[in-house]
Amino acid sequence: MYKGGCLCGAVRYFITGPIRNIVYCHCSLCRKAQGSAFAANGIVEAADFELTKGAQNLTAYASSPGSKKYFCRTCGSPIMSKKDSAPNVVRVRIGTIESEIGERPIAHIFATSKAGWEEITDELPQYPTYEPGR
Fold first, then answer.
1. Right CATH number for 2-113 from 2.170.150.70, 3.30.720.120, 3.10.20.880, 2.60.40.10?
2. Where are the beta strands (DSSP E) in 6-133?
C-alpha cells in the first residue's frame, strides 16, 4: 500500500494496488503542469486509489478534451489525471507518493518534445510519443 498527498497536507490518498507504466513525460503540457522538465506519472486502477482527506480541496483543469488534471486548490500540488476514455484508471503524479515505491520507471515519452536545456542521461528507452502498447 502506498500513501501520498499534496504539499500542504489538505489532500491525502492511499493506493492499495500496484503502480504500472511509470513514465517520464516530456510533452509541453506536462512540463507546464509540473513546472519542471518532465512529469513522473504512473497508472493505478481507479478501484485501488482512495482519497482519504480533502476531496473538496481537489480541483480539476481540463487540459485537453476528455482529460482532466487534478490538483490541490490550496498549494497547487498536482495529484493525478483522468481521461474519459479510461474511467477505470488514474494517472498518479509519482512525486506526491510518500511511501517507498517498488516499481520503477519504464521509459521517457514525448522525448522529442523535451525542453531544449534538458539532457536525458539514463538508459531508459525514449519514445517520440507514448510508449508501445498504450
1. 2.170.150.70
2. 12-15, 20-25, 39-45, 49-53, 58-64, 67-72, 78-83, 89-93, 107-109
Kindly report, residue by residue over 3-50, the tens digit of the pLDDT: 999 999 999 999 999 999 999 999 998 999 889 999 999 999 999 999
Q: What is the domain partition of the chain in residue ranges?
A: 2-113
Cα 80 to chain center, whole Å?
Answer: 5
Please name the residue ranges forming H helices in 15-73. Answer: 28-34
Tally Cβ neighbours within 10 Å of residue 98: 11
Q: What is the DSSP letter of 46?
A: G
pTM of the model: 0.91
